[in-house]
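Notes from the 1:1 (GR / supervisor)

We went over the backlog. Supervisor wanted to see one worked example end to end before approving the batch request, so GR pasted a single chain during the call. The sequence is below; no edits were made to it. Supervisor asked that the structure be written out right there so they could see what the output format looks like.
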Amino acid sequence: MAAEGKLTAAGRTDIGRKRPHNEDSIEVITELGLMVLADGMGGYSAGEVASQIAVETVVQAVRNASALERGDRLLQEAIGKANRAILDKARENPEREGMGTTIVVCLFRKGRVTIAHVGDSRLYRLRRSKLQRLTTDHSLNQELLERGYYTRVEARQANNRHVITRALGINDYVEATIREEPVAEGDLFLLCSDGLTDMMDDHSIRYAMDKKDQDLDAMAVNLVRRANELGGRDNISVILTRADRVGVFPDTGSPLAGLRRGLKRLLGREKDRSGS
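Structure output shown during the call:
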């Protein structure tokens, strides 16, 4: 099941400077249009197990799905399967009880991207130098921010910023937040764990991404390096994905997009009148 269009992608995961091992997992499969990132939690390397199960389960679900099944229902079901698989694995080993993971997924198809996430791993989109966060953290910090208890500056400094309100492997049922967005040619997407966003604010992330002459591998390395320079308090994972092919992903935000569509319709009518 191939993804329409041409995607360029790069991923990198790093242990950081403070943690004894890496509990993040990532997967990039451009031919499926699929990018998955999970940030595990739990002792005795259980977080690493949980994140790996989550990623592998979602990948397998997408591989086995038909083209008609792709979309929000597929990702919701895939994340549900991952949640159950993590719970089953934890029951087999008491030392892994309570292990869990966040997850963020991108699935590209026909000029659109379906986004699913649970927890505080994030997805950003850079479009014509403007960075937009397309996910909202499932965290106590985010809830208090939305209710007006914190300013954005206070939220970044709060001691409870790592308390998440939703994760895989905690309850029998977990609901992913899912949305679909149009993809414009040249859009650059960033999936990342909180090991990046704890060290870099959105302005710094935008500055690191908005470099036209840098390939995605170098950009991923630079983001991880910068997060480590700022402290590297957690594992750091990033996936960068860019929509490249002209004429496949519609330039939905371009001022010329409407003009192009109008000309296309006009030329079509003229062709019909000529009888050709």
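Supervisor's comment: Residues 7-274 form a domain with the Phosphatase 2c; domain 1 fold (CATH 3.60.40.10).
Batch request approved.
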